[in-house]
Write a structure and sequence with these properties.
The chain has one domain. It contains 4 helices and 4 strands. A 4-stranded mixed sheet has the order 2-1-3-4. Strand 3 and strand 4 form a beta hairpin. Helix 1 runs antiparallel to helix 3 and helix 1 packs across helix 4. The longest helix is centred in the middle third of the chain and has 25 residues.
């Protein structure tokens, strides 16, 4: 069951950032404007109106996808989101920021 959840998460993580905002998310990551949190969502590291709008949009899409996976696998949403973190962080490009297990911010 965990393998099924993990496979679904890998697919979902790759699809979440692909729509129209993909370039914006990638640019925001590359510019150090957003970072990946331990809870499976992004946060604005430099709160600006465009960045905040991007974060809200990306997080809403992720929440919907986590809810879908959660329902499909009978797992709580927060468990699904936390499982996604490792896949998301592994796929980050060099220079992207993410929250480490101790809560500190690291750059890949």
């Amino acid at each position: 069951m965990k393998n099924r959840i993990l496979a679904t998460l890998i697919l979902a993580a790759s699809l979440i950032a692909l729509p129209a905002l993909a370039m914006d998310l990638q640019q925001a990551r590359a510019s150090g404007l957003v970072g990946e949190k331990l809870d499976g969502y992004v946060t604005a590291l430099k709160p600006l109106p465009d960045v905040n709008a991007l974060v809200t949009d990306v997080n809403a899409k992720r929440k919907a996808e986590y809810a879908r996976i959660s329902k499909q696998n009978s797992q709580p949403i927060d468990v699904v989101a936390k499982l996604a973190v490792a896949e998301i962080v592994n796929g980050l490009p060099k220079g992207a920021s993410y929250q480490a297990g101790d809560g500190s911010w690291k750059t890949k």
